[in-house]
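[worker-b] picked up task from shared queue
[worker-b] task type: protein-ligand structure
[worker-b] ligand name resolved to adenosine-5'-diphosphate; SMILES cross-checked against name lookup, match
[worker-b] sequence length check passed
[worker-b] input payload:
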Amino acid sequence: MIEVKNIEKVYQRGSERVYALKDISFIARKGDFISITGPSGSGKTTLLHLIGCLDKPSKGFIKIDGIEIEKMKEPDLLTVRRQKIGFVFQHFYLIPGLSVLENVMLPLIFARKKRDLDEIISIIDKVGLKKRIYHTPNQLSGGEMQRVAIARALINNPEVLLADEPTGNLDTENSENIFELLNSLNLGGLTVIIVTHNPELAGRTKRIIKLKDGKME
Ligand SMILES: Nc1ncnc2c1ncn2[C@@H]1O[C@H](COP(=O)(O)OP(=O)(O)O)[C@@H](O)[C@H]1O
Ligand SMILES: [Mg+2]
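[worker-b] inference finished, payload out:
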């Protein structure tokens, strides 16, 4: 469970203070499927980064499974990030020279973990790319590349998947397929939080958090 309580995020830009988030509170329970929507610059990415322990709030707190993350030191934070959270981005960030299999395995190397090849292949199968494991990213479509990024995000068995505009670079059909994949992962029990500009997709999640000028509407 993720608890976000009265968080504020202020960035310092030169002499200017930018209030990216103001007084945001919500709870994401296990199995939730939440979308975060709002205009460009409304604080969506900032919020997702805070939930994902990639940054810390200026005020308020975030608890993940009861642990306040602002109070954690970097090594422990890194462990939470690796063990509990999977991240997917709009730009897939795959390594061009590596195969699908190798790209998906990368987080295991960073986490110094081992998984059986069968298990890794079953995750790749889950995202529908079993026939592509030895392909490199340049041999894949945008939708397939995002599937690889999703498989990579799942490799450490996270409790929550965070996706920042995962369909932002995809055409309608691929967007639909990626959304359906996220939906099926959620139906399988995974907590999923996505940022999306697409109101139709947002409307199909269990809950919508609307941001405007850093505030919840
Ligand atoms: N690292 C940063 N330094 C300064 N300002 C930032 C930084 N990151 C984001 N901002 C500002 O915070 C606000 C929210 O940004 P962001 O969370 O990226 O919005 P969104 O994802 O909704 O487009 C914007 O005004 C943006 O310019
Ligand atoms: Mg953003």
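[worker-b] attaching auto-annotations
[worker-b] The radius of gyration is 17 Å.
[worker-b] releasing lock
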